[in-house]
Amino acid sequence: MSGGRLAGRGALVTGGGSGIGRAAALRLAREGAAVAIVDRNETAARAAAEAIVAAGGRALVLPGDVTSDADCRRAVEETTRAFGGLAILFNNAGITRRETILEIREADWDRVMEVNVKAIFLMSRAAIPVMRRAGSGSIINTASGWGLSAGPKAAAYCASKGAVVQLTRAMAVDHGPEGIRVNCICPGDTDTPLLRNEAYQLGEPIDQFLGAASQRPLRRVGTPEEIAEAVLYLASDDASFVNGAALIVDGGGQAGSV
């Protein structure tokens, strides 16, 4: 893993213990990045880091809460110290609540906004000064197809992901002149623990739920590894003129399905 498109670059991935975060952490590492994995689940984060190290890469485990300013600052400081800098930030941690505004509790609404939006603000606020000093950097945020068009019984989630898209654009305008590119990915249904938890919240059998989720032009749900390829693209110099973009990776769901 010493070579590759990201050789010599430090990366930080939130929610890196499972799903899209884990797949992205491993993919960035295969391209030579040294990867810090931030996750509340230390066991999952450690397993992802061990997989990177076993493949010859460098990894750092950083248990923490992305909604805590202190934890975000500590994560950036430790990553920068361990890797000599921070070139890539993947703000991926997220949660969902499948309820209408009449059903969701205020505390759950607040939690969705904290994890899905405020965490990006906190981690980016800690990371941007490091990138500014280097004169470059790439920040990738995880939005959603439901940040562009809404879905049923997901009011807080849709609102939070729409905010991520607009926050991404605002950051791109503010920090592009400093050499920092800010983009977001908008995945469609992807087979992750988060998606399977949605079936549980809705009280639907997992096979039935995944079957409904696969009704898009490509006739299947995505894999975390497929979404990770989009993250790699935005992190790399291949996307050197891409800034403020919302990259849709959803098997054609936004384009329309039959």
Largest sheet: 7 strands, parallel
Strand residue content: 5-15%
Going by helix content, strand content and strand pairing, the class is alpha/beta
Helix content: 40-55%
Major sheet strand order: 3-2-1-4-5-6-7
Determine the number of helices (DSSP H or I, runs of at least 4 residues): 8
The count of domains is 1
The number of E-state strands comes to 7
Mean pLDDT figure: 94
The CATH superfamily appears as NAD(P)-binding Rossmann-like Domain
Walk me through this protein's architecture:
With 258 residues, this protein is of the alpha/beta class. It has a single domain, classed as NAD(P)-binding Rossmann-like Domain (Rossmann fold, 3-Layer(aba) Sandwich), CATH 3.40.50. It is 47% helix and 15% strand. It contains 8 helices and 7 strands, in the order E-H-E-H-E-H-E-H-E-H-E-H-H-H-E. Strands 3-2-1-4-5-6-7 form a 7-stranded parallel β-sheet, with helices on both faces. Helix 2 links the parallel strand 2 and strand 3. Helix 1 packs across helix 8, helix 3 packs parallel to helix 4 and helix 4 runs parallel beside helix 5. It starts with 9 loop residues before the first strand and ends in a 9-residue tail after the last strand. The mean pLDDT is 94.
